[in-house]
Amino acid sequence: MNTSILSKPIQEFITENSGASISKLALQKNPFPDVDWILILNQIEAKTKAKDKLPTWFSTENIIYPGKISVEQTSSERTAAYKASLISGETLIDLTGGFGVDDYYFSKNFRNITHCEISEDLSAIVQHNFEQLKVENCTFYAADSTTVLSDSSEKWDWIYIDPSRRNDAKGKVFMLRDCLPNVPELLDFYFEKTDAVLIKTAPLLDISAGLSELKYVKNIHIIALENEVKELLFEIHNKYSGRIAIKTANILKDKTETFEFILGDNSNFPSYHLPQKYLYEPNSAIMKSGGFDEVSTIFEINKLHKHSHLYTSDELIDFPGRVFEIEKSISYSKNEMKTELHNQQANVTTRNFPDTVENIRKKWKIKNGGNVYCFFTTDKNDHKIVLICRKIT
Q1: Of residues 326, 330, 323, 320, the one with CA closest to residue 364
Q2: Residue range 224-235: average pLDDT?
Q3: Could you tell me which of 386, 384, 346 has the C-alpha nearest to residue 365?
Q4: Looking at residue 172, what is its pLDDT?
């Protein structure tokens, strides 16, 4: 860890230039010739990226950033805070500590946090930053987490792990066994040290693939931020053999949309209906969950088609996703399209439809944008239709 950048003039320079063009700054003469210019520029770039993602770090003095990639790969504060709200206890060990954002929030719910990070430099940076952030209940190990666990006789309330994909796994189907550490292989070892494990994975992991590699899964959490799925969490409890709950959260600026159901519950029988007054499009976390029949059953709204994943009702309900009022439903035919949408402006979405948004726009000369929303989809009678809507939420 290079502490030369902590001098007051350099810190003021970094703060003053956050948000500035790095390529333009790089052409300037280094105002601090005794300190590596690239190092200073990297701090400016990383701090710029932290402004929206890590506002607590951004607004705290004398924070050291490890580089823009670490900032890009870390959890955002909003997802970390939500994640920390899910578990609590006396002790937690983070086997893949990284930049420490998750542990900052876990530290609020646990008496003691153990941060393992194989990179000595990154471990030192996080330790320094936690002093600035006034976190006093965290112990740091700059070592391989498997070694730390092996050398310790302690048993933790929780193990948290965010395995990273191996470089040689590119192009393959994403599986947990292709990550480091190899959680499926190490799970029995982990249960010698804890009875509860929380595994964070990238959103592209297929839920059924994760379940095929893991045992004792109790809950699967799907976390989206502003309708973009950011991470999956597999919550595992030693020897658990009950049913698995899927819990989704879409974190928005003013609220968090939540939805949950039991995986494999055969009591859900969705109802189908032709378009009614309102149209509902589930948020991305629900779409990732695959709980499409459950949406119909739990919210008591009708599906348009088995594979369309759009819903309709005559009564307006509070719904975790986008809600529209259907102003007109037309068949997807040359005459109807020419009358209603040719050379018009509209936001186009396709669900269970044979053509792409790009081709539809080109074919009917539909300009993007405006206040009209058009859903090209298939109804319960297998007819291709277009729903012309006005957005409510």
Answers
A1: 330
A2: 97
A3: 346
A4: 65
